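Hi R.,

Here's the chain you asked about this morning:
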Amino acid sequence: MDVHSSDGSAGDVDYGSIGNGYAHYRRPDPRIAQVIAEALGGARKVVNVGAGAGSYETAAQAVTAVEPSESMRAQRSTGLPRAVDAVAESLPFADDEFDGAMTLFSVHQWSDVEEGLREMRRVTRGPVAVLTCDPERVRDFWLYEYAPEVLDTEARRYPAIEMMAEALGGTVGVQAVPIPLDCTDGFNEAYYGRPEMLLDPAARQACSAWSFVDDGVRERFTDRLRADLDSGAWDARFGRLRSRPYYEGSLVIVRATPPEPREASREAEEQHHGGT
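And the predicted structure, written out as tokens:
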């Protein structure tokens, strides 16, 4: 669905309404940042598409941020470069302008994921890193037993890994991203061992899927989770997660490197035939 809100948000979420707490609750986690930096492979000049408040931009030396939401651009710290007001599907850059590209927790917001990824590949001569969630694994999380509507929404919104790989082309690898117990980036699975955090309405608001369910769903969720925490029922079933240092859920990083240039491929083929 293609929606443009009053603050310029592109996609299915109005960040002018829900995005005010992102800079506080969605703080970059250094261990996830390291995974992103490794996926970028040392790329120096990087475009960050759907940059939001600027999380993880320290993963590269020079970052050009792209963010259509006015409210999200306003939350960027003064130490970060000003974000370009544009959408993924129409990037205002030349072909091969960047050494690398990244998009983090953003592809599920785009109106046309395939076109956005093709645009990222067009402007990037090196690796493209996509931090996202595998929709096939989203429901394999304890939250599904308390708020299935939320994770059903996430599973519908996140694009299939296979589709993204085809749109990016080249050589594509998918790596599960371990989530630390004390993760500072407050997406739903970040609270796998800290369920009390999801009783905080502001923490939930920083996860966009909660904006798709009504007050009744949120009230039922908080009432049931609070009751199970008070009675010990949650800990009886899931308490082992409180001491698990990392959790592998649906969070993945998709890394795509471009196909070998045609000229180089032709030279390699000629050398191969010349040596046989």
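The chain has eleven helices and ten strands.

Let me know if you need anything else.
M.
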